[in-house]
């Protein structure tokens, strides 16, 4: 069955709005459903690639159950957090760690129109010391209940939705069709049955 | 071990900030991790009670894995959506359904300082016709990727976080200590070891 024109147009539209200066790094997050939900959210806000660090205890149980989004968001697994952070820093991204600390700022007070990598901590242990120290800023989401944290995929989505909101307002998603070789290659890959 | 003073103060503070005119209704959502994450989010934004409708197919697999929040958020299971909606309407809440439709509004354009119940659809089938039609408004969260929806607990959190933001700004969380009998009873229950 040949691909419909409208699906092809959708691919082009989605590729056009991908934000190459925005990513997520997961610091030993290990539950499949959390990883899947984060990849699905990444797709929804236009993140083309997600970086994951393998848990030291247990293993990364990630299957492609992200509502099919696994096909549309690339994933890179790193052996340790330092390598992951070096990689995204190398692309000019600031490191924004979702974490509580004395100098944390409320997530709505951050400017997400600049390049950034959102670093998320593990379900049980939170962020590593390495990530806490390397971060350019710590972001917190207010909570007024008894429980001390949000589910990690929920926390990531709240912050990324704010980032998307800011980028919509500033016109980041209204860009011309991508004409570079990488985008054409991606379009070709997605269009494969 | 007697309960520490600071924990008791925390209970009082949390109870004081509970928003009795704000709730969530789940319309046949059935996955345990989604229900748990929503209860945890409810606790975080100050929702005292969540309403759930049993799935017709399959069953509600909810165990208390919501990071302990199950103890601090009451849950009510209803036999069908009509009963659930009647219940929250009876408490004077508007019905806000998270759903796409021709007259949906973007979730940030809604006023959440008024009493409301946020109605969330099932993982696979979305919202029932009954809920769609009964709703006073349909809310959508923008998405610009290939996937058609967010995970349900992620979608709920994004909307509830906006509600919390608006209510913080308008002083809804700065209320005097609760002195009514119901609050005293709740405080007593929580304080039990
Ligand atoms: C379940 S939490 C980790 C809880 C862990 N016990 C701790 O103390 O860090 C998983 C991750 O979600 C993010 N997170 C959860 N709630 C958050 C909040 N209110 N503000 C900022 N980040 C949050 C953080 O990245 C955290 O490391
Ligand atoms: C996984 S979605 C359901 C998808 C289902 N296939 C459908 O077409 O409705 C589960 C629920 O999350 C909520 N939801 C998910 N993404 C949303 C969005 N972008 N805007 C509003 N609600 C959303 C809706 O309540 C939806 O019924």
Number of discrete helical segments of chain A: 6
Order of helices and strands of chain A: HEHEEHEEEHEHH
CATH architecture grouping of chain A: 3-Layer(aba) Sandwich
How would you describe the shape of chain A? globular
Largest sheet report of chain A: 7 strands, parallel
User: What distance separates the N and C termini of chain A?
Assistant: 9 Å
The fraction of residues in strands of chain A falls at 15-25%
Task: Say how many strands of chain A there are.
Answer: 7
| Helix percentage of chain A | 25-40%
User: What compounds are bound to the protein?
Assistant: S-adenosylmethionine
CATH class of chain A: Alpha Beta
Topology (SSEs and partners):
The structure is a homodimer of 193-residue chains.
Chain A: H1 5-17, E1 22-27, H2 32-45, E2 49-53, E3 74-78, H3 81-90, E4 94-98, E5 105-106, E6 116-121, H4 129-134, E7 137-140, H5 152-169, H6 181-191
One S-adenosylmethionine is lined by residues 98-99, 120-121, 123, 126-127, 139-141, 143, 149-150, 152, 155 of chain A.
What's a concise summary of this model?
Two copies of one chain form a homodimer. Chain A is α/β, with parallel strands linked by helices.
Summarize the structure in words.
The structure is a homodimer of 193-residue chains. Chain A has a 7-stranded parallel beta sheet, with helices on both faces. The radius of gyration of chain A is 17 Å and the shape is globular. Chain A has helices at 5-17, 32-45, 81-90, 129-134, 152-169, 181-191, and strands at 22-27, 49-53, 74-78, 94-98, 105-106, 116-121, 137-140. Chain A has 193 residues and is an alpha/beta fold. Helix content of chain A is 37%, strand content 17%. Chain A has one domain: Alpha/beta knot, CATH 3.40.1280.10. In chain A, α2 (32-45) links the parallel β1 and β2 (49-53). Chain A contains 6 helices and 7 strands. The A-B interface holds A 10-11, 14, 17, 33, 36-37, 40-46, 66-69, 71-73, 108, 141-151, 153-154, 157-158, 161, 164-165, 168, 173 and B 10-11, 14, 17, 33, 36-37, 40-46, 66-69, 71-73, 108, 141-151, 153-154, 157-158, 161, 164-165, 168, 173. One S-adenosylmethionine binds at residues 98-99, 120-121, 123, 126-127, 139-141, 143, 149-150, 152, 155 of chain B.
């Amino acid at each position: 069955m040949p691909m419909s024109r409208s699906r092809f147009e959708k691919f082009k539209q989605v590729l056009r709005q991908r934000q190459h200066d925005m990513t997520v790094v997961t610091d030993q997050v290990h539950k499949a459903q959390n990883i899947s939900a984060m990849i699905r959210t990444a797709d929804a806000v236009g993140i083309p690639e997600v970086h994951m660090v393998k848990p030291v205890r247990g293993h990364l149980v990630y299957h492609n159950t992200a509502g099919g989004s696994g096909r549309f968001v690339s994933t890179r697994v790193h052996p340790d957090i330092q390598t992951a952070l070096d990689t995204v820093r190398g692309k000019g991204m600031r490191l924004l760690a979702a974490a509580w600390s004395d100098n944390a700022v409320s997530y709505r007070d951050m400017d997400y129109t600049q390049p950034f990598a959102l670093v998320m901590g593990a379900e049980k242990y939170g962020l590593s010391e390495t990530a806490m120290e390397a971060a350019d800023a710590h972001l917190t989401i207010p909570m007024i209940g008894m429980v001390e944290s949000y589910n990690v995929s929920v926390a990531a989505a709240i912050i990324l939705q704010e980032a998307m909101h800011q980028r919509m307002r500033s016109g980041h998603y209204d860009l011309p069709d991508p004409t570079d070789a990488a985008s054409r290659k991606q379009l070709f890959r997605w269009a494969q049955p």
